[in-house]
């Protein structure tokens, strides 16, 4: 029988757990039973499940949760076609972050963004795990030529923060997160301008997400730059009985 669950070595090492990932679109009860059996047989402590919008999303979601996949996040993906860039007026100026900015990002930005993570929403991971994950992601982003971390700042400190990758999910350059730590400063628009220039978005289709559904302001800012909601996703975590991050 072919394996359905993809092992995730980086996550497993980071959390000191055996972690895998599985796509749940269209899953039947028989599929879900087979996934649970495989998770036990292969010794997984936790399996991330992903359910992207489909015509049968409600019925599939009910089946998923009856098989102990518990909802940890609802998020959206936005797409922007290759169209001319229309700039929203802002006095904020974005720049690429460097390793010199790491300590400030950890101190002032991560406490704001970590609670939005699906890891923070899952009590078996919790906020401490989400914070550690974000710190690791920022460190990786600062050292990876295919990823970009940008910030805006004023004389008080950082006012906005975003992470991007090229290519990202779906093989397209994409936003992974955008956060205005000082609402009303115009930071989000400056961050988006920087990214659109970085990937030459007038000639390149881009994505943004996955954005937590409950975090509306970033999506609104992106829509002003030509992004449109195209997909939504439910993220689920299955846990082996007795397992948790510690």
SS content category: alpha+beta
**Inertia-based shape:** globular
% residues in beta strands: 25-35%
Arrangement of strands in the largest sheet = 1-2-3-10-4-9-8-7-6-5
Percent of residues in helices: 25-40%
Structural features, described:
- With 246 residues, this protein is of the alpha+beta class.
- It has two domains: 6-74 and 234-239, Translation Initiation Factor IF3, CATH 3.30.110; 94-231, Gcn5-related N-acetyltransferase (GNAT) (Aminopeptidase, 3-Layer(aba) Sandwich), CATH 3.40.630.30.
- It is built from eight helices and ten strands.
- The chain is globular, with a radius of gyration of 19 Å.
- The mean pLDDT is 90.
List strands and helices in order, with pairings.
Blueprint: E1 6-7, H1 9-15, E2 19-23, H2 29-41, E3 46-52, H3 57-66, E4 69-80, E5 94-96, H4 102-113, H5 118-121, H6 126-143, E6 147-153, E7 158-165, E8 174-180, H7 187-198, E9 206-212, H8 216-223, E10 228-239
Parallel strand pairs: 2-3, 8-9
Antiparallel strand pairs: 1-2, 3-10, 4-9, 4-10, 5-6, 6-7, 7-8
Q: What's the quick description here?
A:
This protein has 246 residues and is an alpha+beta fold.
Features:
single chain; 246 residues; alpha+beta; Translation Initiation Factor IF3; Aminopeptidase; 2 domains; 10-stranded mixed beta sheet; 8 helices; 10 strands; 34% helix
